[in-house]
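@channel anyone free to eyeball this complex?
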Amino acid sequence: MRYSQALIPTRKENPVDAELPSHRLLLRAGYIEQLTAGIYTLMPLAWRCARKIEAIVREELDAAGAQELLLPMVQPAEIWQLSGRWDHYGKELLRFKDRKNQDFCLSPTHEEGITDLAKRHLRSYRNMPINLYQIQVKFRDEIRPRGGLMRGREFIMKDGYSFDADYVSAEASYQRMYRAYERIFTRCGLAFRAVEADSGNIGGSHSHEFQVLAQTGEDRILSCAACGYAANEEKAEVKRNQVAQAGSGFVPSSETPQMAEVHTPNARTIDEISAFLALPPEQFIKTLIYLADGKPVAVLLQGNRSLNEVKLQRLLSCEALVLASDTAVHEATQAETGYAGPCGLQIPIYADLDILTMHDCATGANRSHYHVVHVEPGRDFQITKVDDLVLAQEGDPCPRCSQPLQAFRGIEVGHVFLLGTKYSEPMGAHYLDDKGESHPCVMGCYGIGITRVLAAAVEQYHDENGINFPTSIAPYHVILAPLQLKDEAVIETTERLYAELQAAGVEVLLDDRDIRPGVKFKDDDLIGVPYRITVGEKNLAQGKVEFKHRTEKTAQLLDVTEIVAHVRSTITRDLAATMPQ
Ligand code: ATP
Ligand code: MG
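replying in thread with the prediction:
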């Protein structure tokens, strides 16, 4: 491609409101353009990258025995009503009516679409296992689209689905996809972790997320360097104190003095009250009021810990769990928010395991601007249930080997999920076994955010000058930059190299723009093509050209007769380096 004929609208200024490096750089480097919130055009460079990522995905999935198809993205409400999600999906599902007033939606994911297809074609155990995938634009009316391609409303996803006759076989399909995902993200050149993820309320199933490690990631991951355990924060377990775990209830201390109320004007948060009473946060019982399916419940945690809402929701088996509003808190505690405590509270109380081993604590008095001290659990209040409810944090003991967990931030680029019969059962995707008995198919689903992978790659691969893509997913392999466009020898050599590189299978962007070399190099660095060949009058007189990697400061001088072979072998070496064994 000749740069002079390409659509690469780079910008000098940083776009306002683009906080993430990937968002900022993809806009500045002319990769993407916003049409409206969360909806972007993939300009030619981004589209080339997306196609590279897609090609890797296709190669690996095809090699793992999956088949590509394409399902309609406009879907009739009926199949979503059958699965039950028409009522439950919420506002991310963009719904509309056709001219006959029939309900439709833009598919945010395709469990319904694929199960509907499976129902008609997978009638016998002989039709399985089968694994189908597609690469397609999805629409989710995200409440907060963010970070350009990172969280769009319209985005490209690879979604795949496996169908098996039983769980043993489904587990094998799941493992095949897990391994294919490891290969895909390795080939994309990304530093990632596969982490255990929460699989919602579907019993017996399991799920892993593939997280690209990045400081800017939305997700928090906990992992153990000693045994390899890794989980999303939502799912991460913590090895709990033996005493607490063994304990069936409280063992109140007889040494704790009588509980007493103290006036604590305007001290609401744990930090404020801890400073005010000069007590460490660990001595406090944090009391949170939640509404579980509309009914108030109290949750007790040690003052220095945070609640894992997923664990609480599991314990309560409720559909909706929200932090209570000030009004609801007042109704439940007779006090303003910030002064709730378990003593005398008339709603169900759920406590984290830590509470069992706490003595002589402080907590809210259920009276505005008052707290109580010398609170003894089991003596001054009772609870409904105790369980592990804390959000794991760095330094907590690993649930498997007790070594301290480390915390990372990540970007979820892929998700594999053993679904079981969640969709096949209600939608009637049943097959007949060898005895003629009918069973629901056992399903798995597997997603990769193609456009999010692109953004995540920029998060990992950029510097102050711009993007520096790994060779496997870069839009071009090399930029060919002639310096003197009026010099015949320079032009003649450049044109010859351009033709020879292309003939050798190297993807070249010929920067034939008649602009100052400084401006040219700035743009070339910004767009992140891995290598650059510079053809200049002086070096050419010695039969040389410059060759340099995007991140190297100084260039190598190579013989013009050898450059094509050198570039070719460099690209081959790069691609081999990211190819898993
Ligand atoms: P998230 O928690 O980030 O919203 P999700 O759990 O909703 O993701 P899945 O339904 O598992 O995502 O979708 C599969 C993949 O699609 C995700 O792993 C992610 O890479 C990608 N993806 C999901 N939502 C978006 C989005 N709004 N923009 C870009 N990519 C997305
Ligand atoms: Mg989502």
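from a first look: The chain is about 30% helix and 25% strand.
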